[in-house]
Write a structure and sequence with these properties.
Layout lengths: L2 E2 L18 E2 L4 E6 L5 E6 L4 E7 L2 E9 L6 E6 L5 E6 L4 E5 L5 E5 L7 E6 L4 E6 L3 E6 L4 E7 L5 E6 L5 E6 L4 E5 L4 E5 L7 E7 L4 E6 L3 E6 L8 E4 L7 E4 L4 E5 L4 E6 L4 E8 L5 E6 L5 E6 L3 E6 L32 H27 L1
Pfam families: WDR55
GO biological process, one term: rRNA processing
Family: Belongs to the WD repeat WDR55 family.
């Protein structure tokens, strides 16, 4: 079902010597996850299939196993903290626990929720949180196979979740524009933030847990102080159509994926768009994943590819708090040689690629009609 891009057929972007070869899929992946210790990548696609790949620097990877247990689209995947299990959730409302070594289905909760599942988050060794399209959150004890916390506080889908280092406070981002706060230890709901003007699509912890950042469908990042969850402390509008997914790279830097296919590196407090890490030309990005150590970023999009990006330079970047912000419409710096062009040329390259694709499609249609 899946093959790796061969070296004799180079991808559109040049491969860096130390980045793995793109993984080409036969169906678009909704979910990817990177192993906490080993060079392993899990991918779940729109057909419900889950795959595990090994990858290596400067070379192609290898498919280790596949699982077809989900009946509908696999929407999220996450490795357990010890790296021995892979957790997946699906539109079919099921939560699966697979063994990493051989892909064996260890646990299946068939009707975990009443609505399609959208996200999964390991909390502790036996505790797992799931969120669905109806706004319901559940925290499961896998030893019992039952939920120890159930709450429906959101009016719309839960898009993402995050938990603090102590495993005590769980945060949810929702399509109703609010962030939810739940106390796992006390098994209770705490509060909802004030609603924002657009869907919240992601939630991450930064600044050693003192700040929370939420991405939105409007391209804005909303910031909250820890223990000040009711109202935002700051907001930052990116030059982007949306922030569909977001992952922390350092204590102050996140990478965001957008509808325009561009992966941006963004510094939080001071708020700056640092530049472009990479792109899936004209294809909306579904998910991002960071390898341990923050040296490598993986991304998946509608182009049916998983791409890898060298982000090692982000850890050493220093942002001057007093440096003037660039004017709107200014240049977007390319942060890797795999990022197409830079500045206005970067977006020109995107437009040219899209126009060429459109022309090719038009020509193909004309040939067919003849």
């Amino acid at each position: 079902y899946m093959t790796l891009c061969q070296l004799e057929e180079p991808p559109a972007e040049p491969q860096l010597p130390d980045t793995p070869v793109d993984i080409c899929l036969e169906a678009a992946a909704n979910a990817i996850a990177l192993h906490p210790e080993r060079e392993l990548l899990a991918a779940g696609d729109v057909d419900g299939d889950v795959y595990l790949f090994s990858f290596r620097a400067a070379g192609p990877g290898r498919q280790l196993w596949s699982s077809g247990h989900h009946l509908k689209s696999c929407r999220d995947a996450a490795f357990s903290a010890d790296g021995r299990r892979l957790l997946t959730v699906s539109k079919d409302k099921a939560l699966h626990v697979l063994t990493v070594e051989d892909g064996r289905l260890e646990t299946r909760i068939a009707k975990a929720h009443g609505a399609a599942l959208n996200c999964v988050l390991p909390i502790e060794q036996h505790l797992v949180a799931t969120g669905d399209d109806g706004g319901e959150l559940k925290v499961w004890d896998l030893r019992k196979g039952s939920a120890v916390l159930e709450a429906r506080q959101h009016d719309e889908y839960i898009s993402a979740m995050a938990v603090d280092a102590a495993g005590k406070i769980l945060l949810t981002a929702s399509g109703d524009g609010t962030m939810g706060v739940f106390n796992i230890k006390r098994r209770r709901f705490e509060l909802l933030s004030e609603p924002q003007s657009g869907d919240l699509t992601s939630v991450v912890l930064l600044k050693r847990g003192r700040k929370v950042a939420c991405g939105s469908c409007e391209g804005t990042i909303y910031l909250f102080n820890w223990n000040g969850f009711g109202a935002t402390s700051d907001r930052f509008s990116l030059r982007a159509e949306s922030v569909d997914c977001m992952v922390p790279v350092t204590d102050s830097i996140v990478c965001t994926g957008s509808l325009d296919g561009v992966i941006r590196a963004v510094n939080i407090l001071p708020n700056r768009v640092l530049g472009c890490v990479g792109q899936h030309l004209g294809e909306p990005i579904e998910q991002l994943a960071v390898a341990p150590g923050g040296q490598l970023l993986a991304s998946c999009a509608h182009d049916q590819k998983v791409k890898f990006w060298d982000i090692s330079s982000l850890g050493s970047m220093v942002v001057d708090e007093y440096r003037k912000k660039k004017k709107r419409g200014g240049q977007l710096k390319a942060l890797s040689s795999k990022a197409v062009g830079s500045g206005e040329d970067f977006f020109a390259d995107l437009r040219e690629e899209q126009e060429a694709t459109a022309e090719a499609a038009t020509g193909s249609d004309s040939d067919d009609s003849d």
